[in-house]
Amino acid sequence: MTSNGGRPESVSVALAGSGGSGLMTAGEMLLDVARDVGWYGMMTRSLSPHIRGGEAAAFIRLSPVEVGSCDDLLDIVVALDWTAIRRFAAEVPLSGETLVIYDEAAGEAPEATTASGARLVALPLGEMAQEIPQGRPNMVALGIVATLIGIPAEIALATVERAIADKGAEAVTASAAAVRAGIKAGGALNADYSIGAAAAPGANGRWSISGNEATGLGALSGGIRFAAAYPITPATEILEWLAPNLTEVGGALVQAEDELASINMIIGASFGGTPAMTATSGPGLSLMIEGIGLAIAAETPIVVINVMRVGPSTGLPAKSEQADLNIALYCSHGDAPHIVTAATSAGDCIFTTQWSAHLAEKLQCPTIVLTDQWLGQSRVIIEEPAEVPFVAERDTAPPGIENYQRYRDTPSGISPMALPGTPGGEHEAMSSGHNAFGAPSGSAADHHQQLDKRQRKLDEFDFGDVWAEIEGEGEVAVVTWGSTTGAAREALARAKENGLQARLIGFRLLQPMQVERFAAAMKGVKKVLIVEQSHGRQFHNYLRAHFHQHLPATVKVFNRPGPLPIRPGQVVEQLSEWS
């Protein structure tokens, strides 16, 4: 909880129990309270695969400064029952300094909890809620935590009342009373987990946004005006956010009957001139592969969001992993160049998705955007993001064009795209091998020309410095991508306090490979730690395949599959022998 060894001052809280008990609602309210006092924060979640019921846990980390990962240990746990603690014990890291508050009606604590040495406190949480008409234990828990971390009672109550105002006066009264009961109970515990003063009290300009909402916002900002998708965990919230917001900008969303229909619908919309996207997860991406190949061959721009989850097959739908890297990079048979990007944080989902929509349209090719369950379903407090210039920008053929060649072999590899109905722009958009006009062709010369053209437009394009997040200096580098970037960044801050100067390279653009830029970023590096959340070392193998000449002799790999998140302290441990 205190700042030491480069660790930001923060407090980490878990609210655990059964699904449907309002723990996520309480966690989001706690984030809102933190924002109202000027703190930053993030909330992640762990859920069972049940539609309702099962186990649930909300993990909240609050700090006066921005945080991008879970901390190593929890400071406070409130258990309404033991279901989540028993099932998710490995995801609930405890120590002798952790305060575990539980409902006395839940019975004895699990062995893993008692073995941690945590301070256990039994309270009648359910009874306290029952004494209040329409009272709920989750609001009692919220009041307890608010008191323990130093939130003024008036701010906590005002935030809660504002959050549920649309539920009616009775609900507001009941929730406020339950929070007050929790505040009183928390004050009697003789425990202080307060953190430093807010960096900017009352910073109401900050946003509270989830990664999936940020992805939807980035798509709209990038010019997407049509979406077709089939609901799938953990990507569904993107569609729920887009449905009303696309309408506000003149766009539309269609819930398709399956992923096959989704990919073909967006290809059709894009062929008609409307920037289009879909959102899915691993099983859905698997079904979309043939359609993505069609978009590559026909040079039709589309954006495919893949919110990764644990696989293969159904896997663990509500858990996070980075193991869809291979399928994203090598998703189609034949030589099929396309773009793959990855958001580095929940807030970065805005920028990365907006940039990806721009790239798809500019280069007339599919762009796969990788996030994951941990990013997508996290909710974070961030500063309002700056506006960026990346918008949909397609090179279209003018009316009256003569001798139109849809797939003309241009120096840039990008050919003007005639929209349906353009006078003089009649052409065939073929999935089969074709010539410059789009007519079917089995000629080796035509095939080679089109292969070269499709590759050239990616090779010749200047993707700029945003291809990766690069920070720090020194002879040691931590190379990572996507959601593990936050843990790596904090680990390097801690390592610096221990005397190790190191640099961070967090990939945002995975394909096409930026070999020369990577070489420049690695100049002077003698030791590399690769960090990834996959069992098969997919990212390590990717680096060895495409960047091997720029990797030093000393390379360590810290890889672990989901669903456990990679924490900063674990990365520090990997670096410790080099400090």
Give the secondary structure arrangement, pairings included:
Elements: E1 11-18, H1 23-36, E2 40-47, E3 55-63, E4 76-79, H2 83-87, E5 99-103, H3 111-115, E6 119-123, H4 125-130, H5 137-148, H6 153-163, H7 169-187, E7 207-210, H8 211-221, E8 226-229, H9 236-248, E9 252-255, H10 259-271, E10 276-280, H11 282-297, E11 303-308, H12 325-329, E12 339-342, H13 348-363, E13 367-372, H14 373-376, E14 379-382, H15 444-459, E15 468-472, E16 476-481, H16 485-497, E17 502-507, E18 509-511, H17 515-521, E19 527-532, H18 538-547, E20 554-559, H19 568-575
Parallel strand pairs: 1-4, 4-5, 5-6, 8-9, 8-10, 10-11, 11-13, 12-13, 16-17, 16-19, 19-20
Antiparallel strand pairs: 1-3, 2-3, 2-14, 7-14, 12-18, 15-17
The strand count comes to: 20
Q: Measured on Cα atoms, how large is the radius of gyration?
A: 25 Å
Number of domains: 4
Q: What would the principal axes of the Cα set say about the shape?
A: globular
Structural class: alpha/beta
Commentary on this structure:
- The structure is a single chain.
- By secondary structure, the protein is of the alpha/beta class.
- It has 4 domains: 177 residues, Pyruvate-ferredoxin oxidoreductase, PFOR, domain III (Pyruvate-ferredoxin Oxidoreductase, domain 3, 3-Layer(aba) Sandwich); 174 residues, Rossmann fold; 67 residues, no CATH class; 112 residues, Rossmann fold.
- Helix content is 35%, strand content 19%.
- The strands form 3 sheets. Strands 6-5-4-1-3-2-14-7 form an 8-stranded mixed beta sheet.
- Helix 1 runs parallel beside helix 5, helix 1 crosses helix 6 and helix 16 packs across helix 19.
- The longest helix has 19 residues.
- It is globular, with a radius of gyration of 25 Å.
- The mean pLDDT is 94.
